[in-house]
Structure formats: C-alpha cells, structure tokens
Write a structure and sequence with these properties.
about 100 residues; mainly alpha; 2 domains; two-stranded antiparallel ribbon; 5 helices; flat
Length: about 100
C-alpha cells in the first residue's frame, strides 16, 4: 500500500531525491516521517484505489492537519486573551482559520 503512495508521488516529481530536496529547502529540515509528506502532497484529484479497496489520497492527512491547526490556534488565543469569553475566542479563531 505504501509503495502505491510512493510510486504516485515519484510519478509527480521527476525523482524522489528532488522531492526530498524541495521539502528540506522549504521547511529548513528533513522530516522524520517522509512518507507522510509524500502522501500529503498528493492532490485529491490524483486519488486512486488500492487493490484492497482503500482510497489513496491526502484527505485524511488534511483532516488531521486542520484539527492540529485548530488546536494550536485555540491554545494561542486562550493564552493571549485570558479575560475574554468563549464566544469571542470562537469568533476570532473562525476569522483566523477561514475555511473556504
């Protein structure tokens, strides 16, 4: 299954090394779980179905990333505005995230 992910990514980029060099250049470090980055860079229009019936795309990682960003922003706002109520914090977080 992972081989399918990797093969799809390698077809998108000219070589696997190019992908890793680009990731390092953008992030400034080499991620420990490089395969997750490969999967994350697969556009959902490039999704395919594995032989076991599992759909292969990045939407699950996108879901997880959105949840992590929400938690980070919520924690920051909670700390930054200690005297503001839940409604204010929720509205401000929604303005910052703006999912469209």
């Amino acid at each position: 299954m992972i081989r399918s992910y990797i093969q799809l990514v390698f077809n998108i980029f000219s070589s696997g090394r190019d992908f890793y060099f680009k990731v390092v250049r953008i992030l400034g470090f080499l991620p420990g779980k490089q395969r997750l980055y490969e999967i994350a860079f697969i556009h959902k229009s490039a999704s395919t179905t594995h032989t076991d019936g599992q759909v292969i795309n990045n939407e699950r990682l996108e879901y997880l990333g959105d949840a992590i960003l929400d938690a980070i922003i919520a924690d920051y706002l909670f700390t930054r505005f200690p005297n503001r109520d839940e409604g204010f914090l929720t509205q401000l977080r929604a303005k910052l995230v703006k999912r469209k």
